[in-house]
Design brief:
Elements (H helix, E strand, L loop, with lengths): L4 E6 L8 E5 L5 E6 L11 E4 L4 E4 L1 E6 L1 E2 L2 E2 L9 H10 L2 E9 L3 H15 L8 E2 L2 E4 L21 H8 L6 E6 L9 H7 L3 E4 L6 H9 L4 E2 L16 H7 L4 E5 L7 H10 L6 E4 L11 E5 L2 E6 L2 E4 L4 E4 L3 H10 L5 H15 L13 E7 L4 E7 L1
Parallel strand pairs: 1-4, 6-9, 9-10, 9-11, 11-12, 12-13, 13-14, 14-15, 15-16
Antiparallel strand pairs: 1-2, 2-3, 5-21, 7-8, 17-18, 18-19, 19-20, 21-22
Helix pairs in contact: 5-6, 8-9
Length: 382
């Protein structure tokens, strides 16, 4: 950059006062302070005046299955990942976890190998791969959703060790159904390897979820989907997660996976961005027009951003992560700073990553809500 910048009159999610951010010549956040209208202190900087617009780091997507026709289960070469990383960067994403859904062990390990190789030479101006999310194959068959039953595996220590061998540092999250492990061996093993355990595709009852959380599980995968609903006479996996301050719930805000009213219930009960983060759950056709596309050995049909199997089973979405931010505001579920935080700050906290603080790379998004058109506009800064 070869020069220092000062961003003034910026609104940061969670801050009441306008802020000014100083950025050093290396593009690193040097300081964040309340803004004071004193132009003399800005004379040695290139000044960017946001005029009260919101500012955040880019989005972090912890559950995304592919894009531009690429499914992360079908990787054959490390270079296959470059176009999707570039595309996601253009969609406002700073980092993501390629999510490998249930498929054969051979394909899972092949994809892990390609992702590991690509991460050694990631392009700096693209979205960064932060690790991998394994969504399966240790799922309850009765809540498998669109996951193929033929490739589901029993949740045993032997099966888990065999699958993740050599890739324990790459895998950041594993989604599993805790009721499949009555001996309670797997979750402590994964936690000891630094892998986050997320509960999902599960029929776990409340006491089983409580046990899993006590063993160290800290996430719920796509809340409300592929799990028992909330019920007023009985606890459940989701209910125990909502009331547990140490548990984060992933949320798909596309209007199809969860209706807006239930999103509001979840957010209010979870103290908004303190216990929930947005995910896209986007499938390979993200970035492509509506139509039919191959998915594993089956076909999915994409209409207006929603992907379903030919039999009508909901398979996922093709909407980028930041569309969920716009939806939450447009549906009047929360205000703009909370919606922004759900896609930028909350997933960082869930991964124990720093948020917008000094020492971080200054790769910002500038946000403005157009109330007349009910549209959210954002643009990259740096």
């Amino acid at each position: 950059m070869n020069q220092s910048f000062k961003i003034i009159q910026a609104r940061l999610p969670g801050e009441q006062e306008l802020q000014e951010i100083t950025i050093d010549p290396e593009g690193i956040i040097e300081s964040i302070d309340p803004w004071h209208d004193n132009s003399e202190t800005h004379s040695h900087y290139t000044v960017i005046d946001l005029q009260g617009d919101y500012l955040s780091l880019g989005g972090i997507d912890l559950q995304i299955n592919g894009g531009l026709g690429l499914a992360f289960t079908d990787l054959k070469e490390p270079e296959d990942l470059a176009p999707i990383c570039k595309f996601l960067g253009e969609q406002g994403i700073d980092g993501f976890l390629p999510t490998i859904i249930t498929t054969s062990t051979v394909k899972i390990r092949r994809s892990l190998a390609q992702i590991a190789a690509y991460r050694k030479n990631q392009l700096p101006d693209s979205a960064q791969i932060l690790g991998v999310h394994l969504e399966g194959p240790f799922l309850n068959p009765e809540k498998r959703g669109a996951h193929p039953q033929t490739h589901l595996l029993p949740l045993t220590l032997t099966q888990v060790e065999s699958l993740i061998e050599d890739y324990q540092d790459l895998i950041k999250i594993i989604t599993l159904a805790p009721e499949l492990d009555p001996r309670g061996e797997v979750i402590p093993y994964l936690i000891s390897r630094g892998i986050i355990v997320s509960l999902g595709h599960s029929l776990a009852r409340g006491f089983q979820a409580l046990q899993a959380f006590s063993q160290g599980a800290t996430m719920i995968t796509h809340a409300f989907n592929a799990m028992p609903s909330l019920h007023h006479r009985e606890s459940s996996l989701l209910a125990e997660g909502i009331v547990n301050p140490l548990v984060y719930c992933g949320l798909i805000a596309d209007g199809q996976h969860v209706c807006p009213t239930m999103i509001k219930v979840l957010l209010q009960a979870s103290n908004y961005d303190q216990g929930v983060f947005l995910v896209s759950d986007a499938l390979a056709p993200m970035g492509l027009p509506d139509g039919e596309y191959p998915w594993d050995n089956r076909q999915i049909e994409v209409k207006q951003g929603t992907a379903r199997l030919i039999d009508g089973t909901l398979a996922g979405t093709t909407l980028p992560l930041l569309v969920g931010v716009e939806n939450l505001v447009r549906w009047k579920i929360c205000d703009l700073p909370v919606a922004i935080a759900l896609a930028t700050e909350s997933p960082r906290r869930a991964l124990s990553l720093p948020g917008i603080t000094p020492g971080q790379k200054a790769r910002f998004l500038r946000w403005r809500w157009d109330g007349l058109k009910s549209r959210l506009n954002w643009s990259r800064i740096f």
